[in-house]
Amino acid sequence: MAPLRAVHGNMDEPELQASLPERLVVEAGTVRIGMLHDPGRREGRAARLVTAFPGCAAVVYGHTHLPEISRHADVWILNPGSPTERRRAPHRSLLTLEIDDEQLRPQLVALP
């Protein structure tokens, strides 16, 4: 089992925000994955995320509660949605990410 790594979100309590970083790059084998909660405005988001995390094969963000699996400049742009509050999303969801060597396989899981 892999170690748990996290970034803080805008609704986290101050003590938790102080204990977690705003951004993080994790390494899973030879694959680098960037993480942050709030990706900023929708316009230009993918390009900004790729630029903010150079050398990463994927960037995972949250905040919007809208699931996303897309690619920009050969980088996966991923948002798991939310397993608890779907808000404007079609369903509650989470994301799995399988990593073999340098291959990433993201999969969105819709929850009932």
In a nutshell, what does this entry contain?
The chain has helices spanning 14-19, 45-52, and strands spanning 23-28, 31-36, 58-60, 68-72, 75-79, 92-100, 103-111. The chain is mostly beta strands.
Number of E strands: 7
| Structural class by helix and strand composition | mainly beta
The number of distinct helices, counting runs of at least 4 residues, comes to: 2
Distance between the termini: 26 Å
- How much of the sequence lies in strands comes to 35-45%
Q: For the residues shown, what is the average pLDDT?
A: 95
CATH class wording: Alpha Beta
**Helix and strand sequence:** HEEHEEEEE
- Sheet with the most strands? 5 strands, mixed
**Adjacency order of strands in the biggest sheet:** 1-2-3-5-4
Assembly category = single chain
- Looking at CATH, which topology would you report? Purple Acid Phosphatase, chain A, domain 2
Helix content: 10-25%
Q: What is the CA-atom radius of gyration, in angstroms?
A: 14 Å
Please explain how this structure is put together.
The chain is mostly beta strands. It has one domain: Metallo-dependent phosphatases (Purple Acid Phosphatase, chain A, domain 2, 4-Layer Sandwich), CATH 3.60.21. Helix content is 12%, strand content 38%. It contains two helices and seven strands; from the N terminus they run αββαβββββ. The strands form two sheets. It has a five-stranded mixed beta sheet with strand order 1-2-3-5-4, covered by helices on one side. Strands 6-7 form a two-stranded antiparallel ribbon. A hairpin with a 2-residue loop joins strand 6 and strand 7. The mean pLDDT is 95.
